[in-house]
Design brief:
It is built from five helices and two strands. It is mainly α and 115 residues long. The protein has a two-stranded parallel ribbon with strand order 1-2.
Length: 115
């Protein structure tokens, strides 16, 4: 019911950001199913950030979710193989936040040279 309005607002915001000359717009999209039928259909780059299952569960539980809830949510998501197939870039998030940040910044600095 709400998805058409969300998509319309999303499209309006992306258009506005492009007119303003924003260098990038990052959208976290947790219900991603595939690139063709999602908010990612117009993305220049789709990035997947992956971590081992047990690391994901441990992090989510540490932030206040129950392990049962986390496992149920993960079971309803697409597989990591599907994420990798749909992504243009894949980051492994099995280290520290600083390590991931440095990896993303290194990629971003190289990517900026190509656009």
């Amino acid at each position: 019911i709400t998805m058409p309005r969300i998509e319309e607002r999303y499209t309006d915001l992306i258009d506005e950001f492009e007119r303003e000359g924003k260098p990038a717009v990052v959208v976290e999209y947790s219900v991603f199913r595939n690139r063709q039928q999602s908010l990612a259909y117009g993305a220049d780059v789709v990035i997947a950030v992956l971590a081992p299952l047990e690391v994901r569960i441990e992090r989510a539980v540490a932030s206040g979710f129950s392990e049962e809830d986390v496992r149920a949510r993960i079971a309803r998501q697409i597989t990591d193989a599907d994420r990798i197939e749909a992504a243009d870039v894949v980051f492994d998030n099995d280290g520290t936040p600083e390590e991931l940040r440095n990896e993303v910044l290194a990629w971003w600095n190289e990517y900026k040279k190509t656009v």
